[in-house]
From TrEMBL:
Organism annotation: Adhaeribacter rhizoryzae
A Pfam match: DUF3800
Protein name: DUF3800 domain-containing protein
InterPro entries the UniProt entry points to: DUF3800 (IPR024524)
Length: 244
């Protein structure tokens, strides 16, 4: 049994400049089994064929919200409603688990300072720990965990690769290196143009969850649809990490 963990973010991971209207960084991970991912990938391609007549369109949260680029068709209210209904049906129908880590950058720098650990690396560590918990909870014979991230730049990717290797060699406070090794955990980086549907889902999921973290009382219909997919134990959503 092979597992995929697709990861994308919402917000800027930098600490030097913080947007007061959006002061958090959210890293979102989507866990699929190989079988469930293939079913989801095909379903999302069918949606792309329906609205753009090919599978080359890359779904991007900001462009969809702004109705920019190929998503100008969503200015038509009927098309927009139909698109969201179809996408929501795919989300509800297909099997995957959401893991997120949200860091309030203002509170974080007040507590730890501007030279503290990289918030992307902290969040990646959390997602990797929770991914192991999910696999072990399922009690299936998992042989591989492939972590897939979108490329950000050579410098950033190299730094993150080094952090990943440290986790593999040392483990974390909660997950030993042997537990990571048991599932042959490895990481890969892909370009947005590679058109990977799992990464596109992570991008689409990250924003409404970040908005929920910022204001859990505000009406957020997208989050309500995603809520049942978040890794939970009983009534507690363990896949919804907030820090500090």
């Amino acid at each position: 049994m092979k597992y995929f963990l697709f990861i994308d973010e919402s917000g800027d991971h930098g600490l030097s400049k913080v947007d007061p209207a959006f002061p958090i960084f959210t890293l979102c991970g989507i866990i699929f089994t190989q079988e469930s991912y293939e079913a989801f990938r095909l379903a999302l391609n069918e949606l792309k064929l329906k609205y753009w007549e090919d599978t080359n369109t890359i779904l991007h949260s900001r462009d969809i919200r702004k109705c920019e680029g190929p998503f100008k068709i969503l200015f038509n209210q009927q098309v927009k409603e139909s698109f969201y209904l179809d996408f929501n049906e795919i989300v509800e129908k297909h099997a995957f688990i959401i893991l997120t880590s949200s860091i309030d950058k203002i509170a974080y720098t007040k507590k730890y300072g501007y030279l503290s650990d990289d918030v992307y690396e902290i969040s990646l560590s959390f997602l990797m720990e929770r991914a192991i918990y999910v696999i072990e909870k399922n009690q299936e014979r998992a042989s591989e965990l492939q972590i897939i991230l979108e490329r950000r730049g050579n410098k950033e990717d190299k730094k993150l690769e080094e952090h990943f290797q440290k986790l593999m060699s040392r483990g974390t406070f909660y997950v030993s290196k042997n537990r990571f090794a048991k599932y042959n955990t490895h990481i890969s980086f892909n370009y947005k143009k590679d058109n990977i549907n799992g990464l596109q889902l992570a991008d689409l999921v990250a924003y409404p969850i970040a908005r929920f973290i910022l204001d859990p009382v505000k009406h957020n219909p997208a989050f309500e649809i995603l809520k049942s997919k978040i890794y939970s134990k009983g009534n507690k959503m363990y896949g919804l990490k907030k820090h500090p």
